[in-house]
Amino acid sequence: MRPAEPRDLDDLVQLRLENGRVHAVLDPSVYRVPDSKAMREHFDARLMADDNDQALLVGVVDGRVLGLAEVSLDPPPPAHPDPAAGAERAPARGRGRPGAVPRAGPPT
Fold it and tell me: Using CA atoms, how far apart are residues 14 and 31, in angstroms rounded to an integer?
């Protein structure tokens, strides 16, 4: 992974369009293929932005951009008026069965 650069613009657009195509096949009532021009404008603006609360990263293998990640920081939640209020335990906490949820993939 590395920060995206202006030279990645075409790859970013193509990755987003492909993601849209895959999702639209899964459920066309919810997902759609985004507009290519809109995606180009979106990524162009993100690449030119000077924003420390957001990052646009690309995954590169053998010099080819194969993935992307858009990351943004959420503002911290508001402080609770009573700091001790969040200290209670959930009633079922501690009564689970470790290992009851199967792992995905072969055991390690």
Answer: 17
